[in-house]
Request: fold
Amino acid sequence: MDGVIVPEHALIAHKLTRLRDKNTSSVLFRNLAREITQILISEATRDLTTIADERETPLSPFTGDKLAAKIGIVPILRAGLGMSDVAHEMLPMARILHIGLFRDEETLEPVYYYDKLPTPPNVDLAFVVDPMLATGGSAIAAIDRLKETGISDIRFIGLIAAPEGVSALLEAHPDVKIWLASIDERLNEVGYILPGLGDAGDRIMDT
Reply:
């Protein structure tokens, strides 16, 4: 699919297998999610624009590079918190912007419960992070809200997705690039990704 990047990476494949395993402990699950996120962040930042940065080594002046954009990391609460810490470690200059959404288990529609986004925005580029892209409802709602504040350069990073969620997000926001560790087979009748990994929020938070 255009606009969707699923890196062919042996480490991602190795770690994702253990992430899916129902016997994986919460501690190991969190660590694996962080490690996969780190690889995806590296991929998703590959083409960012840089500008000249004048510095000095212990021996001489030199001209290096620094990222040009003011970056925001937007975890969709609560499961996105399992990805945002490592994203912030890799992008320590970034601001953290929180959007709280949960999926109504009967309607499968996103419900807002927390939103502290600044208007006008204080970032140029937003990375929305959420482990699961199932129906796509939460991601679409979060990106809708970011665009309402004036942010136009938005990228989505997730661990696993259903084809239905990817299609829905691309239809709603064709300008948003998507990075994923895997696109799985399908959604089941209650909106869970198959084969999936269960409820990412529960497994990250051990609830």
